[in-house]
Amino acid sequence: MGQSRVVQEQEATRPLREDIRFLGGILGETIRDHEGPEVFDLIERVRIEAFRVRREEVERSAVADMLDGTPTEVALPLIRAFSYFVLLANLAEDIQRDRRRAAHVAAGEPPQDSSLAATYAKLDAADLDGASVAEQLTDALVSPVITAHPTETRRRTVFDVQAKITALMRLRRRLEPGDPGLDDTELRIRREVLTLWRTALIRLARLRIQDEISVGLRYYDLTLYDVIPAINAEVRAALRSRWPDVDLLERPILRPGSWIGGDRDGNPYVTAEVVHTAAEQAAAYAFGRYLGELVELEKSLSQSARLVRVSPAVTALAEAGYDDPAVFADEPYRRALHAIRARLSATARRALDRLPDNGLTTDAEPYPTPQAVLDDLDAIDASLRDSGDALLADDRLAALRHAVETFGFHLQGLDMRQNSEVHEQVVAELLAWSGVHPDYASLGEAERVDLLASELLTRRPLLGPNARLSELAAKELGVLRAAKDVIDTFGAAAVPNYIISMCTSVSDMLEAALLLKEAGILDPGTPDGSPQSPVGIVPLFETIEDLGAGAATLAAALEVPVYRDLVAAAGMRQEVMLGYSDSNKDGGYLAANWALYRAELDLVEVARKSGIRLRLFHGRGGTVGRGGGRSYDAILAQPAGAVRGSLRLTEQGEVIAAKYSESGAAHRNLESLIAGTLESTLLDVEGLGDDAEPAYELLDDLATRARAAYAHLVHDTPGFVEYFRQSTPVAEVGDLNIGSRPASRKPTNSVSDLRAIPWVMAWSQARVMLPGWYGTGTALEGWVGDDPARLARLTDLYQRWPFLRTVLSNLAQVMAKSDLDIAARYADLVDDEHLRDTIFGMIREEHARTIRMYKAVTGHEELLSDNPSLAESIHNRFPYLEPLNQLQVDLLRRLRGGDDSELVKRGILLTMNGLATALRNSG
Questions:
Q1: Active site members
Q2: Picking from 601-615, 630-644, 647-661, 666-680, which range would have the lowest pLDDT averaged per residue?
Q3: How far from 208 is each of 148, 463, 652, 830, CA to CA, in Å?
Q4: Under 8 Å between Cβ of 355 and 348
Q5: pTM for the complete prediction?
């Protein structure tokens, strides 16, 4: 980097440094005022020493030596201080990122990739045929699905205070020195920092699922309710202006979903009551917002019939308005809007058995569907435009129309999910009780499929009203019957999918179908009619083996006539979910990523041969080890034909807060999902051409090598699980109270039974980050050997192929956050010296090998050469990470040495919270 470029970069980051210094100064003063000068001085000494370590002025052990033996009661304010330093630094970085984007736009530079403006430019350059675009975007859908997977470690209160400080810091930047509002703004910032310091970082009690439902809905209040409909309108207008002869995007492309309250895989707290609660709270939010908007519209649309022309449709609506014809007698829009509010209030009361805010007590006729509401709003819109008042129609009314079209009465689609093993148990019990078969579990796969297919064609239910069932079966059917109630009340879009975890066979899919039939959701049809279900059956392929067999499983299911008829009744649309977390835990980073890519290739081929429209649902987590990384890049890294206008993906834990807590961030992230979907659907982004098959074969080889290296460590090395449990805080992750689900599926010591979130989170805390890279170095080195031509081949693919480029870029981001000097201190917690030396030795060697091969393949001198902003971020937060890690190791040693006091336990949890904040991901 030239000297002028360095100066430019330093000048560009000057506001960030100033913000961090300002916020850090306020936090320091707050600590000194409320904890005393001794605590403040210790924090300062540790911070200064950590900076000296970063500058390599002292040995790496300097901070550890300084903190060694620190009394627990002194360690706690230290941990809190460094956790809040990091939180405030994150806040400053987010503001800086927005500042850089604004500067980019102000400078008139070309739009950046992942923005819709850049995507539109690419589509314009491609000169695409309108008919082809319309076919590719048939039933287009981009659906971020919010889950309750527990990786968000911040409490809601802390999150709210952080949001207030962010807003105040933005205001402060706009004020000039001497401005009378500057002192007041800085005083308000001090007040919020004090509130932050006086607020406990961690929860005393585990979140209940009702809390998770409320937290998920909170993002609609923050951003999603306003941002999603606006983007839908923008995208539809942009595409239709380019291809006016075809009716693109009949339905809004962006339609959100949720798992919170419907995902009962491993969560015993999801019950029929919870399903009702989740659906009703979502609907209540939607009705409340609509009614509130109608109140505001009634205030603002005050046009007089003496001054404007009004359509007959609006006149008819106005006549159904206020009972007293004298009220707003010559203001038809106000009366019409009141009529709509009355009918919508009646709709809400019928659905919720209560009246939301801004509702009217009325005997008006409820609306049968959201489309009926939209028809009335559209009538007002058309009338305004006919009278020349389009400017008014394009304001609040347009926003409400787009919202109703997007969210309907349900707000978000609530997915159901359960493990295939549970389905098998329940179906076996139902078949035995009804006398259909006494021992379903003893049947082979072909026999199961024949039996289930036959049952799906009968209108006879398996159970009568007096059936006596086990607790499990009664609960499962109760949940599904609650889902049926939700569909009947709020429409089919309220429960769009039933996901089968650990799906391995056709019978797994048909078992779910049979349970839907028993609940009254799936209609078996008549002798002259086909079966149909408003709820799609979605197999989830999770392990590497199941991903490899997924296409064959789907093809076999489509050969079963009754299942094929169900898919046909759904417009030949079949959704398949791909699991990123378990496949990674099963086979390692590179093998899992390639297994997912290969599975998509095979599924696309099945879709082509069978004539179905395939929609893929990506079960991605926040970290790279669970499928995380930039969503735009991940979408472009999909194989050709895997997107086709439709995409769903999970949004989990801390990622939800990072993406959707602020309007600008929410808009950018949702925009990038649509941009990636449009490009991957309409353009050739894979870039391999005739080189595709040789490239695939090369990755087959690399994946095999990587999986073998990973398995040698994780599955084959004696004592590995014990090493993992002793060298990481995995046992303590479950005490963080960050979610309602247990940390393990089963109470065993097996890696396979441990949930992916604590697996990844524990390695992250110990700074190994093993799920995001292990095995890749061995695979690359083994394949290349000493052959420069092979290395050149990999470099060429890295430069041309989005998949390989994304895989290696994400790997580099993970490895940049790893720190094996810190990890060595965690390894010292392992009692068995031989076990410690063996396994940590393997980790250290593979770590060095992977970095070496990454640099060789990419040509980069550093891990983050292509991501300087992340490199700067990691560099800046090093002094805060160092003491948090050192204190965590020390406290773990005390706990495991017998000091199980509340203070020690609380200190460990605080360090986990602080490290998750500092690393900007957890699980």
A1: 149, 585
A2: 647-661
A3: 11, 33, 17, 34
A4: yes
A5: 0.92
